């Protein structure tokens, strides 16, 4: 964490902030786009995939909020004054909500469309968002790892929904 903070550059920080903010748009945009596409093309499977992805992301996010409330782990910059964040995130640290929701979206999308050209960019994006949270100084590695496991696990547990 200290090495990440010490090696920040303005250009990298801009990219990491962009990645960190992208989760809101992608987590909502992917299922919304699939739903609209499924309605327009009268594709029932696409509409079901949209609901599966949206449900997975929403449920994993709810589980993450519950865990955050129970654990109340302080942010890295609160526990260690040597860690200087790019911005001061609110709430608590464990687990990372960004990692939870992005990995849930990536896993559910990959389950719905199991092609390399869906899987690779999905997980590259989710991993990049998770890394950005550590780079920005607002999460520990265990926060993002747990979020990734929670999000991926939720998508796998809800996989039967895509077949309904």
Fold and architecture overview:
It is found in: Cell membrane. Residues 50-159 form the Phosphatidic acid phosphatase type 2/haloperoxidase domain. The protein is an all-alpha fold and 164 residues long. The protein is built from 7 helices and no strands. The longest helix is centred in the N-terminal third of the chain and has 31 residues, at 10-40. The radius of gyration is 17 Å and the shape is elongated.
Q: Main traits of this protein?
A:
164 residues; mainly alpha; Vanadium-containing Chloroperoxidase, domain 2; 7 helices; 0% strand; PAP2/HPO; cell membrane; Phosphatase PAP2 family protein
Short description:
The chain is an all-alpha fold. It has helices at residues 2-6, 10-40, 44-71, 76-79, 97-112, 116-135, 141-157.
Protein topology:
Layout: H1 2-6, H2 10-40, H3 44-71, H4 76-79, H5 97-112, H6 116-135, H7 141-157
Helix pairs in contact: 2-3, 2-5, 2-6, 3-5, 3-7, 5-6, 5-7, 6-7
Question: Which architecture name does CATH use?
Answer: Orthogonal Bundle
Radius of gyration: 17 Å
Report on the biggest sheet. none
Shape: elongated
Top-tier CATH class: Mainly Alpha
User: What is the tally of helical segments?
Assistant: 7
The helix/strand order is HHHHHHH
Mean pLDDT: 92
Number of domains: 1
Contiguous low-pLDDT stretches (5 residues minimum) are: none
Topology-level CATH name = Vanadium-containing Chloroperoxidase, domain 2
User: Ends: how far apart?
Assistant: 44 Å
Strand content: under 5%
Number of distinct beta strands: 0
What proportion of the residues is helical, as a percent range?
over 70%
Structural class: mainly alpha
Protein name: Phosphatase PAP2 family protein
Organism: Mucilaginibacter achroorhodeus
Domain Phosphatidic acid phosphatase type 2/haloperoxidase: 50-159
Keywords: Cell membrane, Hydrolase, Membrane, Transmembrane, Transmembrane helix
């Amino acid at each position: 964490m200290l090495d990440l903070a010490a090696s920040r550059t303005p250009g990298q920080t801009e990219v990491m902030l962009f990645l960190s903010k992208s989760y809101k748009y992608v987590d909502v945009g992917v299922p919304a786009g699939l739903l609209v596409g499924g309605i327009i093309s009268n594709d029932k499977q696409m509409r079901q995939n949209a609901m599966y992805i949206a449900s997975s992301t929403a449920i994993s996010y709810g589980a993450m909020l519950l865990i955050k409330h129970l654990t109340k782990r302080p942010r890295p910059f609160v526990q260690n004054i040597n860690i200087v964040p790019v911005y001061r995130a609110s709430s608590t640290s464990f687990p990372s909500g960004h990692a939870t929701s992005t990995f849930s979206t990536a896993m559910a999308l990959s389950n719905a469309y199991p092609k390399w050209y869906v899987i690779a960019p999905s997980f590259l994006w989710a991993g990049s968002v998770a890394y950005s949270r550590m780079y920005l100084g607002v999460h520990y590695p265990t926060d993002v790892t747990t979020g990734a496991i929670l999000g991926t696990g939720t998508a796998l547990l809800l996989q039967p929904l895509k077949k309904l």
